[in-house]
Specification:
2 copies of one chain form a homodimer. Chain A is of the alpha/beta class. Chain A has 19 helices and 8 strands. Chain A has helices spanning about 5-10, 15-35, 45-50, 55-65, 80-85, 105, 115-125, 130-135, 145-160, 175-195, 200-225, 235-240, 250-270, 295-300, 315, 325-340, 350-360, 375-390, 410-429, and strands at about 70-75, 90-95, 140, 160-165, 280-285, 305-310, 365-375, 395-400. In chain A, helix 5 links the parallel strand 1 (about 70-75) and strand 2. In chain A, helix 10 (about 175-195) packs across helix 16 (about 325-340) and helix 14 (about 295-300) packs across helix 19 (about 410-429). In chain A, the strands form 2 sheets. A 4-stranded parallel β-sheet of chain A has the order 2-1-3-4, with helices on both faces. In chain A, strands 6-5-7-8 form a 4-stranded parallel β-sheet, with helices on both faces.
């Protein structure tokens, strides 16, 4: 795609040479990880196309939206309510954070011992490689972890676009009240920035669009409960990653088409992996696109990932936004909905342990792999309680701590293979 | 001291052999770092004695207090209001966290990439080496960083004593309201646990005691503004560390005696270091006893530490608790007071940058050393803005990231010596 978009990328201030290199690396990785999969659903064609145009056609669309007066809002977290952005004629997009890019530049601003995701978003910006951050009018951060909370201060110095929402540390009544107020404050901010009004009709339409997207993602999740699984974990992860970037209405329609195909596959017993393949639930830190490392290792080791108890995954779509009859009630319901997302940033966070159990049971997982980015303290510490809880339920548990580099890929593959073999042995005995 | 207390330590469940080893190492370290200093104020004799009895006589006192029905409350953070504990006939004590102890045990529960202070409090408990945690009836944690917030969940599983206060992430009106409510909730908790009432008289007496302690620490800080400095940074740091352990009334009286002596020294121009020694402000993470590493390196390199912009330091005593006329007003004032402490857990935290400038100016610091424990994300990220702010004011800045081990001591000494030499050159030119 690259030749058609040079002018656009130049106008966004990207580093054209480095960007060409990035696209080439990503294209190769996609070829070897995704396109090499056998027997994929035909409906994945759309998502392959989206990936191939993720820095191209999608940016053309965003710039058209921007020219038409729409606000382009970059986000990093599922606590930021997409409905509110849509209701003000905004476009909500995730920002680049899933690859080791601009690391040396990023480390001039933030410590070496920062998680790959935070280094990623700093690095993508500093290296001039993220057309999303350049297109965005506003970037909404949140206080979910020390690293993001403090890095946003610097990211704002660099971009002049950052607005931070305060997420509380506890799911107490007071914490919920504080968060509800933050949603109201965001509504005011968006009204100010856009000069538009929030109306009940607009909110209802936005809720319809986002709930429909969530329902389609729920269908995808449900389909993965079958044995054989009709779709790979890699493909399902990709769709979840794309859900943060694509136009929500088109995405939903294409995903529902794919889910129709998956339903047929399930009816015919067609799987992406053989019936009886070892079924793994992945739980932990978010996997931003193109972070496909762990899924790729698991599925090339004979396992199949049947679910992601993660923000790029189940936490993003499990709960719908409830109906409302006033604008303020809508804001309250948004706050209520997001406080049901069990991020490790909360203390205590026992509900996440229950989520892992419920997903394992619903999706017939035979083992849980706890995934945390290196230096992602909330998930790394919570791993201890997750382990005890998963093992007490009689399920095998493996703890993976890694970053985006491929240096440890061989070692991880050995550990994952041993884990899958161990589950196979348990099944046989 | 060790022979007299064997029975007490055994009754607290300490690991006697390991504890004997720890005391021996600490005694040697104290000898070489503290008692080798020349020309110390005579008043340091009391604090030397306190250190020598920190696991002995002070624990005897605590156990007597406990037997007399007083609540022993362990804390880790200056946001926990000592006045409230005292007003309910409680005793407030800091818990052991300043040395590499029980690290292997701690790493079974929390990640390797956790700061030394958190590993320290977990390790001290797990290795059976902290008589304070064993004496405590209640341990009050707070949500100041991801590591502590999440580790307290596990620490509570181990000790069954942990109560967590929610500190907000922002100094907004809503954040302040949440924190005020947390102070009220703590008051209720202490009333429940002790079965006592909070009265205005008790609160006033507690405020008088703690404010007097803060005033004495302010006197100590003021004395350090003189050139030559009448007391070493090492000794001043030690006194600040002891302020979290000692009986507050006795501590205040002894510190005021020392300050009288310091006033005389200042009047006579008597210094611990020569007039004109390079004056350094240290700013950053807390230094729990016996973490004397950085001060020791600075002062053995010809510098003198004139202040600590840190929680074990200025943040602990700069502001007094204002007068109040009702119990609830007292709780509100406690909340207001502590929200003036500019911990890097807040975003934004520009007030800390102002504190660094004000302290540098008041104490005639000629350079700022930013100190952060490895993996202490809030301070490590904030270091970037601190650097820009300090350098913009024309002051030299050095960023130190370290842990409790002495492995990097040589390398740190080389960097600190170069920093001090550079300041000397600037002064000469």
């Amino acid at each position: 795609m690259s030749e058609n978009y040079q002018e656009m990328w130049a106008s966004l201030g990207l580093n054209l040479e480095a960007h060409r290199g990035l696209l080439s690396v990503l294209s190769d990785a996609y070829q070897s990880i995704y396109l090499s999969q056998k027997n994929r659903p035909a409906g994945m064609g759309y998502f392959d196309f989206v990936v191939s145009e993720v820095h191209g056609l999608r940016i053309v669309e965003l710039l058209k939206d921007k020219a038409a007066g729409k606000l382009i809002v970059g986000t990093f977290c599922v606590y930021v309510p997409e409905e509110l952005i849509l209701a003000l004629d905004g476009v909500s997009i995730g920002l680049c954070a899933g690859a080791d890019v601009g690391t040396e530049e990023a480390e001039k601003f933030i410590p070496r011992n920062t998680c790959a995701l935070i280094k990623g978003f700093m690095g993508f910006k500093l290296a001039g490689l993220c057309p999303y951050v350049e297109s965005a009018d506003l970037i909404i951060g949140e206080t979910t972890c020390d690293g993001k909370k403090k890095a946003y201060e610097i990211f704002d110095e660099i971009t002049k676009k950052v607005y931070v929402m305060e997420l509380p540390n506890k799911k107490s009544d007071e914490g919920r009240a504080l968060w509800t107020n933050e949603i109201r404050r965001l509504a005011q901010k968006l009204i100010e920035v856009t000069g538009r009004e929030i109306t009940l009709d607009k909110l209802r339409e936005a809720a319809r669009v986002v709930n429909a997207k969530r329902r389609a993602l729920q269908r995808l999740s449900d389909a993965r409960a079958s044995d054989p699984a009709p779709i790979s974990g890699l493909d399902a992860l990709l769709i979840n990653q794309i859900s943060f970037y694509d136009d929500p209405v088109r995405f939903t329609s294409k995903l529902n088409e794919l889910c129709d195909e998956l339903d047929e596959r399930v009816a015919h017993g067609t799987g992406i992996a053989p019936k009886g393949a070892v079924r793994v639930l992945v739980s932990g830190s978010p996997m931003a696109i193109p972070n496909w490392k762990l899924h790729s290792i698991i599925e090339s080791s004979g396992g199949i990932v049947v679910g992601e108890e993660a923000c790029v995954g189940e936490r993003n779509f499990r709960d719908l936004l409830d109906a409302f009859s006033t604008v303020d009630e809508a804001l309250q319901k948004m706050a209520d909905r997001s406080m049901g997302i069990n991020c490790a940033c909360f203390t205590p966070n026992d509900e996440r342990l229950a989520d892992i159990h419920n997903m394992s049971s619903k999706l017939h997982a035979q083992g849980v792999i706890h995934y945390a980015l290196q230096f992602c303290t909330p998930y790394l510490v919570e791993a201890y309680r997750a382990k005890n809880s998963v093992e007490a339920a009689g399920l095998p548990y493996l703890r993976i701590e890694t970053d985006y580099s491929l240096e440890d890929a061989g070692q991880l593959k050995t550990r994952v293979e041993a884990f899958i073999e161990m589950i196979r042995d348990v099944k046989r005995s």
